Amino acid sequence: MNLSKEHITALAAERDLSTSELMSLLQAEGLDSLLFSAADKVRRQIYGDAVYVRGLIEFTNCCKNNCYYCGIRRDNQSATRYRLEQDDILACCAEGYELGFRTFVLQGGEDSYYTDAKICGIVSAIRNRFPDCAITLSIGERPKDSYQAYFDAGANRYLLRHETADPAHYRKLHPEAMSLQNRKECLFHLKEIGYQVGSGFMVGSPYQTLDNLVADLRFLQQLQPDMIGIGPYIPHNETPFSKFERGSLSLTLRLIAVLRLMFPYALIPATTALGTIHPQGRELGLQAGANVVMPNLSPVKVRKLYELYENKICTGEEAAQCRGCLERRVESAGYQIVTSIGNVKKPNS
């Protein structure tokens, strides 16, 4: 199909493209500069040059699941496991607050040690101490009643990547005990409760096709999330997928731009994975339409242990170093770090 500036204009005007047009656009390297420029224009119309910072606290690398792509999978016997207690997490938040962070993202594996009571206790303690901050959880699939309890305790946002919307592809990435249907139901439960919801997927994961990527975009159109996180697949040596190629930088950037045009109001991070596969990966992500960065507030002693993939950047830096480095990088890309809570700017919101 002969794609042109008109197809990009159609996306920018929030007119839906056909599946064949979308697939062609994802392969149209010659249109990258037009695509990125259109995406940047849309993000500036809504968010200006603001880039929101989220303080990431990776509080446990224990996980009951055995996803074939993940470095903290249950069967990785080489992983050194750790858990942060409530006081450790609060100390991370206190340091982040002093550095200007007004959103804390608590991310971890699906770890049964953290019961609903423990999660609610942690959330309540953060809410009481930092009432002007947003609290984001990213702790996987839980019952709807659990999600409701965390919300009632003070959590505002929840991140749960669907990873792939295609059932056949999902089955190639996950063991039989896991269910795509349950994953999707969790996302809709979170929306029903009132969370700002984030989803997303890996780019270039094993066995992924362009059809799979289009299915991901269509699922996101159905879900209409507030946040969309994507990043290139990066292999880990201690997984069944250790020999697979990593995801493409160019395709990831193209997808960020397409997401910005399809979901103008979404909060889209320039991920650490982008910075891991390219020295300027996060800056390129911002210039393609992303508007969030997530520096690490976790204690330095555990950062290398939260290894979803190998060679992750910024594992040896103190929080202040991470914050300062990112600020300079964001400015070099033509944007400004904003320390506000950074809610999604949907119409009439």
UniProtKB/TrEMBL annotation:
Residue numbers binding S-adenosyl-L-methionine: 163, 183
Any one Pfam family match given in the protein's UniProt record, by short name: Radical_SAM
Q: Looking at the keywords, is Kinase present?
A: no
Which GO BP terms apply?
Answer: sulfur compound biosynthetic process; water-soluble vitamin biosynthetic process
Q: Specify which residues bind [4Fe-4S] cluster according to the UniProt entry for this protein.
A: 63, 67, 70
Which note does the record give on the cofactor?
Answer: Binds 1 [4Fe-4S] cluster. The cluster is coordinated with 3 cysteines and an exchangeable S-adenosyl-L-methionine.
- Source domain of life is Bacteria
- Listed InterPro entries: Aldolase_TIM, BATS_dom, Elp3/MiaA/NifB-like_rSAM, FeFe-hyd_HydE_rSAM, HydE/PylB-like, rSAM, rSAM_sf
Instruction: Please give the Gene Ontology molecular function terms for this protein.
Output: 4 iron, 4 sulfur cluster binding; metal ion binding; transferase activity
Q: Please tell me whether the keyword Iron-sulfur is annotated for this protein.
A: yes
UniProt keywords, alphabetically:
4Fe-4S, Iron, Iron-sulfur, Metal-binding, S-adenosyl-L-methionine
Q: Which residues bind (3R)-3-methyl-D-ornithine?
A: 138
Q: Can you give the residue ranges of the Radical SAM core domain? A: 49-271
- Cofactor dependence: [2Fe-2S] cluster; [4Fe-4S] cluster
* Entries under PANTHER family matching the protein: 3-METHYLORNITHINE SYNTHASE, BIOTIN SYNTHASE
Q: Which NCBIfam families match?
A: rSAM_HydE (TIGR03956)
| Annotated protein name in UniProt | [FeFe] hydrogenase H-cluster radical SAM maturase HydE
